[in-house]
Amino acid sequence: MCTAATYQTKDFYMGRTLDYEFSYGEKIAIMPRNYPLQYRHGLKNIEHYAMIGMAHVVEDYPLYYDAVNEKGLGMAGLNFVGNACYQEVKEGAVNVAQYEFIPWILSQCASLNEAKKLIQTMNLVNTPYNEQLPVASLHWIIADQSGSITVESVKEGLNIYENPVGVLANNPSFDKQLFNLNNYMSLSPKQPQNLFSKELDLQTYSRGMGALGLPGDLSSMSRFVRVAFTKMNGQSRDNERDSVNQFFHILGSVEQQRGCCEVADGKYEITIYTSCWNSQKGIYYYTTYNRRQITAVNMHKVNLDAQQLTTYPMLDDEEFYEQN
Ligand SMILES: C[C@H](CCC(=O)NCCS(=O)(=O)O)[C@H]1CC[C@H]2[C@@H]3[C@H](O)C[C@@H]4C[C@H](O)CC[C@]4(C)[C@H]3C[C@H](O)[C@]12C
């Protein structure tokens, strides 16, 4: 399972949890403007926007899971197993392999509006990166300060949904996730009133009773509701430290602890990492299952006019702060 969210304070933040039972080996990868970005089906854009994100890097090529570009447009791919369906390669079409979708958009689009237009021109195809790697079954959230969309390639074609919540989880399709929120409209951070019956003297005997009914399980439908509620009601000051901290708390509401979600005998899905980027500043923050300390990589600290990819290992060891 995975969950992605956006968050607006003074700056615009976005990120995701990456939940899985094994890791492909992740790195934080900065693709500078002159990295020779070539596409599988013949498209090329040599000079492009720079981007930073989490990727599995093969042969110096970043297979991005999530990333943000220097213009503040961000994107994350989340599992959409059983629903994702890509096209066959078509002669004469703008064929974009599923693993190229993130760099294809982020290298060319400075805003969500530009992304919406570019997506209309694309034929998203099922080409795998190589024979060792499967075709990933994903759907995507794309967002900047102006809003969010969800992109789902299904057997009927490409669906592009406005995403007014700025949240994405896994199955089912986004329209159903959004509709499901109707079931929770009475939830509130305030204490409830007794609307149950005038004849009964019902009392609020604990704080937090306004959110009674907020689903606490790990299913994606429930995580969608939980993150939406936490994000929509969460409060923080608007400076960097408080915004980033608050963002990690929002996604912390759907973290997966080892042991609670068994996917095969003795195999458990966990939150391998959580990311949060500041779209304006190009800073990519992350925590991992073992490293709760927030770690930051700033894309503007490398030469963004270079040609080579810069990668940083995803640090995964906890450093306890010894106070005495
Ligand atoms: C498994 C990851 C998604 C995690 C997730 O959504 N879990 C939910 C599980 S469930 O639905 O609820 O069952 C996805 C997100 C991004 C994916 C990776 C990226 O798409 C980049 C490449 C794409 C290649 O085709 C396959 C390897 C890969 C390196 C992908 C491996 C895997 O599919 C990743 C890592």
Report on this structure.
The chain is α+β, with helices and mostly antiparallel strands and 324 residues long. It has a single domain (2-313), classed as Penicillin V Acylase, Chain A (4-Layer Sandwich). 16% of the residues lie in helices and 33% in strands. The protein is built from 5 helices and 20 strands. β4 and β5 (44-45) form a beta hairpin. The longest helix has 14 residues, at 220-233. The protein starts with a strand and ends in an 11-residue tail after the last strand. The mean pLDDT is 97. Bound molecules: taurocholic acid. Taurocholic acid (TCH) binds next to β2, β7 and β8.
Distance between the termini: 39 Å
Query: Widest sheet: strand order?
Result: 13-12-11-8-7-6-3-20
CATH class: Alpha Beta
Main beta sheet, described? 8 strands, antiparallel
Q: Which molecules other than protein and nucleic acid are bound? A: taurocholic acid
- CATH topology category name: Penicillin V Acylase, Chain A
Helix content: 10-25%
The helix/strand series, from N terminus to C terminus, equals EEEEEEEEEHHEEEEEHHHEEEEEE
Number of continuous helical runs? 5
Mean of all residue-level pLDDT scores: 97
Please tell me how large the radius of gyration is: 20 Å
Oligomer: single chain
Identify the CATH homologous superfamily: Penicillin V Acylase, Chain A
Number of DSSP strands?
20
Summarize the structure.
The chain has 324 residues and is of the alpha+beta class. The chain has helices spanning 101-108, 112-120, 174-180, 220-233, 240-252, and strands spanning 2-8, 12-20, 27-31, 37-38, 44-45, 51-58, 61-69, 74-79, 94-97, 122-125, 138-144, 147-154, 157-162, 167-168, 262-264, 267-268, 270-278, 283-288, 295-298, 310-313.
